[in-house]
Each structure stands twice: as C-alpha cells, then as structure tokens.
Amino acid sequence: MALQLEAVRLDEVVESVLAIIRPKADAGRVTVTASVPAALAPAHADRDRLAQILINLVDNAVKYTPAGGSVGVQAHELAGGRLEVVVADTGIGIPPADLPRITERFYRVDKARSRELGGTGLGLAIVKHLVLAHGGELRIESEPERGTTVRFTLAAVRNAA
User: Fold this and answer.
1) Bridge partners of residue 143, in order along the sequence
2) pLDDT band at 117 (very low <50, low <70, confident <90, very high)
3) C-alpha torsion 123→127→128→133, nearest 10
4) What are the backbone angles phi and psi of residue 151, rounded to the nearest 5°?
5) Is 125 helix (H, G, I), strand (E, B) or coil?
6) Residue 67: partners with Cβ closer than 8 Å, 6 or more residues away
7) Can you tell me the distance from the alpha carbon of 39 to that of 63, in angstroms, rounded to the nearest whole number?
C-alpha cells in the first residue's frame, strides 16, 4: 500500500478520532481524554492511515476498559526528530504470555470475550503494519487488571509552515 505522506497535525487527528469513539466510550462509562499540544511539530504521515491506527488503538482501549475506567491519548516529541503517540488505558490488561503474539493476525487473548465484544482479531496486526510502513516503532506494555499502554513513533516534520 502506498502512503500519501504529508505534514499532519496530531492534535487534529486525535480529536477527530476521539469524536468517533466518544459515543461508545460514554455508553460504556469510560472517560476518554487527549493531551496533544497544538504546538507539537506535525507528523510526516498519511492522515487516513494515522487515523486508522488511532481508531484501532482507542477502540480497543475503550472495549477492554470496564465502566469507570479511563483511556488517554498523549503525544510528545522525542529526541532525533521523532514523535511518540501513547494510548494508555486502565483496562483489563494483557497476560505477559500473550504480549509477544497480540500483533499476529487473528490472535485473540480471550476467545470468549472477543466473541462477546466483536472484532476480527486483525486490529493490532493492521496497526503494526501501518506503523512499520511509516518507519515507526510499536511497543505494547501491559499488566493484567492494571491496564495497557501502546506507544508508537512517527517522524516529525521540521520547519513546517
């Protein structure tokens, strides 16, 4: 797949994604917040594919966070002209034994819960593919009953007008 790379404001993409996911979060009584500075350097990214990454990650976070929990999206600049986007939740978490496989196509941690909540088992595989296509890195940290944090990097655009 060819990416249409351009300067993309992360704050705008995150807000548009949260607008899509917020009704589902509200229905599940999950608080969704964003902390993405408007002054952050733009990402060198394909806007639609970046939105797809974030929709998958935020939707998963909301889906696996019980009522009263929270999901937060943050972004900040790293050294070396990179940006890091972080999606963190207070959800059910992922057992350590499953972490190495969760980005495999069709892999599911809990088959019964996945049937109940829907999905194809492709979300994180797609996320991984799209992050790598952008030249980024994907890291997933999780602790059962404490939550999950997914981080990915993108190149920043310097001297954008």
Assistant:
1) 147
2) low
3) 140
4) -125, 140
5) helix
6) 28, 29, 30
7) 30
Residue 113 has pLDDT above 60, yes or no: no
List of residues 6+ apart from 79 with CB closer than 8 A: none
Tally the C-alpha atoms within 13 A of residue 31's C-alpha that lie toward its C-beta.
7
Mean pLDDT over each residue of the chain, to the nearest integer: 89
Mean pLDDT of 16-36: 97
pLDDT digits 0-9 by tens, 38-50: 999 999 999 999 9
Half-sphere exposure of 29 (CA within 13 A, CB side): 3
Full-model pTM: 0.89
d(Cα 106, Cα 53) in Å, to the nearest integer? 17
| The pair of three-digit structure tokens given for residue 42, joined into one six-digit string | 């733009």
For the chain, the straight-line distance linking the first and the last C-alpha, in angstroms and rounded, comes to: 28
What 3-state DSSP class applies to 1? coil
Question: What pLDDT was estimated at residue 161?
Answer: 47
DSSP string, 18-71: HHHHHHHHHHTT-EEEEE--TTSPPEEE-HHHHHHHHHHHHHHHHHTS-TT-EE
